[in-house]
Amino acid sequence: MTKEVKQVLVDMSVNLGGMKMQNPIAVASGTFGYGREYQDFVDITRIGAVIVKGTTLEERYGNLAPRIYETPAGMLNAIGLENPGIDVFLNDYLPSLRQDGVTLVANIAGNTVDEYALISRKIDKHPGIAGIELNISCPNVKQGGMQFGTDPELVKQVVQAVKSETKLPVIPKLSPNVTDIVSIAKAARDGGADALSMINTLMGMAVDIERKRPVLGNIFGGLSGPAIKPVALRMIYQVYKEVDLPILGGGGIVNTRDALEFILVGASAVSIGTGNFVNPAIAEEIAQGLENYVIEQGLNGINELVGAAVL
Amino acid sequence: MPLSEKGLVISNQRVGRDLWEMEFLAPGIAAESKPGQFVHIRVGDDHDPLLRRPLSLYDIDQNLGRITLLYKIAGRGTNLLSKFNPDQLIDVMGPLGKGFNLLQGRRVILVGGGVGIAPLLFLARELQARQNEIAVFYGGSSSDEMCSPDRFVNLGVGIMTATMDGSTGFKGLVTDMMKTSIDPLSIDYFYTCGPEAMMAAVAEYAVQHDIAGEVSLEEYMACGVGACLGCARKLKVTDNAYVKICKDGPVFPMHDVELR
What we know:
The complex is a heterodimer. By secondary structure, chain A is an alpha/beta fold. Chain A is built from nine helices and 16 strands. In chain A, the strands form four sheets. Chain A has an eight-stranded parallel β-sheet. A four-stranded antiparallel β-sheet of chain A has the order 5-6-14-11, with no helix packed on it. In chain A, strands 1-2 form a two-stranded antiparallel sheet. In chain A, helix 2 (113-124) packs parallel to helix 4 (152-163), helix 4 (152-163) runs parallel beside helix 5 (181-190) and helix 5 crosses helix 6. The longest helix of chain A has 15 residues, at 282-296. In chain A, 57% of the residues are buried. The model of chain A has no long low-confidence stretch (mean pLDDT 93). In chain B, the strands form three sheets. In chain B, strands 4-3-7-1-2-6-5 form a seven-stranded antiparallel β-sheet. Chain B has a seven-stranded mixed β-sheet with strand order 11-10-9-8-12-13-16, with helices on both faces. A two-stranded antiparallel ribbon of chain B has the order 14-15. In chain B, a hairpin with a 7-residue loop joins strand 14 (232-234) and strand 15. The two termini of chain B are 32 Å apart. By secondary structure, chain B is of the alpha/beta class. Chain B has helices at residues 27-32, 76-81, 118-128, 150-155, 174-181, 196-208, and strands spanning 3-16, 19-25, 38-41, 53-56, 59-61, 66-72, 89-96, 107-113, 133-140, 158-163, 170-171, 189-193, 212-216, 232-234, 242-244, 251-253. Chain B has six helices and 16 strands.
């Protein structure tokens, strides 16, 4: 008897608010540079989407050192959006990046609503970017950043302003540093968001008892890593129930089980952030792990699992 | 080209108070390594402590594919590293960063403080192979916190030690010993790694005598490859922009760095 090899075909692709991803795994902004820094350690063509470092209108030098500090099962960072500015990104970095055949997502931050709109207009004129993630939640810059993400009216205004400048999918990244995440998510939807990215880091700090000073140069920083996973899951669960938009979920994902938890509470796709620092090949490994799971469960595609644990 | 490799631990032993030496086989990384570069190591399987630990290359045997590290137990991460046993596998990324400029046929001084001596051994080996005249100055607080100078002696490199408590060698600062032991007119270059106050004293002396050199810096790191921008440092030569210690360094021209 000849053994028949059964070709198993499952659909791992995701449509995140109009943005096509070959699989549900994205690497989070600020943890993967511009996609090239990790090229010796991971095949970036196997990642669903690469969300590049947050970009502002003008160049930013970032915060004083120390900028990072390890905490229990997590880390604090206060980089301060160091980046070369949108024009350098579009003219100098993007041309070689788009040759890699990777789904590239820009991440933008502005000091004003007009700045978000202007950056988006510039991006819209350049081919090679699949979507725009709006950083309205960075806890580490003095102007803009998180203040946009904690006021529903401002969230709506920013999203509207960006939507009027581009046809690309617009994905606001929500701050967890709010009392009512659902009201922020609804404001983003009302502004015309195509999908939601959640969550950004939780604001925190660390203290040096020898020097009797805060550890970070910026005093406060954003907490990430496995320590924040339960908070991220809870917020995604709440938003999935109330807001009819696809969610890019993340917060402390370091293995396939974690990714599945996010998908089961309503994330259509997931982003790996701090986990890249621990294992640079993690995005590729989790993409494969999810595919294996879908096959083992006898499903047709990953989409069947989205929100399955939401009661 | 850097790579990710599962190293096979050969030995891991205490060589001083809180000072350990680990040897492992990682032929791919060993073949690519240059003095002053570092490896980024996962110290456990779970996620607390979370981040990798950057450690400089103490010695390399490229024929055997063997990497030797010298490390000080300074916290939970390095404590976990000291628990590795022979035959265990260890998750290593490397070699990362830019190493030392390897001169040829010059007269050079190496100044190491504490565990900062680590990258200077591999450096001394490579400088020796390039016909340099080398003198090493090694300082620490006390002899029991320092490794044996034998590895330098075995290379045929002169090494002088200084301790703050006088338990071995010169009593006092290694930089004071160095200043009284060398003729600046006969020195072409300095290489230094250790506490920043020590490196600052070396740099000050070098400036006074118009001698160039390099320093190796340390900072909290997450990615180790220039992606997270966590290990930032300002250089005197680049207005307000920051360099990244993991990618642009950890070795920098001595006179470009504002030492703390």
